[in-house]
Design goal:
Keywords: Membrane, Transmembrane, Transmembrane helix. This protein is an alpha+beta fold. It has a domain of 157 residues. It is built from five helices and 13 strands. Helix 1 packs antiparallel against helix 2. It is globular. The protein starts with a helix and ends in an 11-residue tail after the last strand.
Length: 238
């Protein structure tokens, strides 16, 4: 789902670049007529326009190349979607070993973990044959208490979205539209942003919920799914 969304967005970007070039071609043809009529002064704007268009087209091409590279190296877990109950095959309530088996990744304790009672685990790709770490998977953290996954955090560097397509960069208005107004918006205690929490009606549960954190412009900077009250903890395991 994420891959299709990104590819459609790339096609749209390329389409806009092509339309810009189509606009530029008649302008190039007209430059000869302008010279014939002696209106030399109009050549500079046309020339500047063509240069600008070509520069933009080059920049778009470079951006497309970078996005393709990023899409090509996405790990399977990064292509999963967040739901009320977990992230793809990783479900709330699993042990960390069950989560690792389900996601086919390994988990390591995060450096930020400050308590043995509550720990964050970060996923990474591990090659069991070579017994080596192959790659990290950024932007995902599993909160584990009593060897049970009780919360899954999605941080700013992650491409992961919810089943409804909400993710990093989504707006409060978009969240509100998806959940038909069944959200609670409260001030963030440390920033100028907000917490957007699904009501039990929207979540369909009194035990689990989704919480989105936004910046002062109302755009999502991170989000999480988890059990109450852990899903509401502003400082994670701290």
């Amino acid at each position: 789902m994420i891959l299709r969304f990104r590819k459609s967005k790339l096609k749209s970007t390329v389409g806009r670049a092509k339309r810009l070039l189509v606009i530029a071609l008649p302008a190039l043809g007209m430059s000869g007529c302008v010279m014939m009529t002696g209106q030399i002064s109009t050549l500079r704007p046309v020339s500047a326009l063509v240069t600008h268009i070509m520069a933009r087209a080059t920049a778009v091409g470079a951006l497309i190349s970078k996005v393709h590279q990023r899409l090509d190296i996405l790990q399977p877990l990064e292509k999963e979607a967040v739901s009320i109950g977990g992230l793809g095959p990783v479900r709330l309530g699993m042990s960390i070993q069950e989560a690792a088996n389900a996601a086919q990744v390994s988990f390591v304790v995060a450096p930020m973990t400050q308590s043995e009672l509550c720990q964050y685990y970060l996923p990474e790709v591990y090659d069991p044959e070579k017994a080596t770490r192959v790659a990290s998977i950024d932007g995902i953290g599993l909160m584990v208490v009593n060897d049970q996954v009780i919360r899954i955090d999605i941080w700013s560097e992650s491409p992961i979205k919810t089943l409804s397509g909400l993710g990093i960069g989504s707006t409060i208005e978009e969240i509100d539209a998806v959940y038909d107004g069944q959200i609670d918006v409260t001030p963030h205690p440390y920033t100028d942003g907000s917490y957007v929490t699904l009501t039990s009606e929207a979540a369909g549960s009194n035990l689990y919920s989704l919480v989105f954190e936004t910046d002062k412009e109302g755009r999502v900077t991170q989000f999480r799914t988890g059990q109450f009250p852990a899903v509401t903890w502003a400082e994670g395991c701290s």
